[in-house]
Specification:
Helix content: 40-55%
Distance between the termini: 22 Å
Structural class: mainly alpha
Strand order of the largest sheet: 1-2
Number of strands: 2
Order of helices and strands: EHHHEH
Strand content: 5-15%
Amino acid sequence: EKYFDKIVCIYTSKSIRHKRLEQKRNISNNEAARREAKQLSAEIKLEKADYAIINNGTEEELLRQFNLVFK
């Protein structure tokens, strides 16, 4: 964290993350959970971030939040 000016976390709820992984990468719910267990939790990433973008909605909503952070 000391190497960056700001940290941005793009967060998606677990159920949506798993659904997207299954649809786009053909990764099962169990495999997604196994991979996530080896990573820093999404909640801790959010706590460490200076900015949080919530990616639970549409691409348009994501882009709107992105533009607010990076304007």
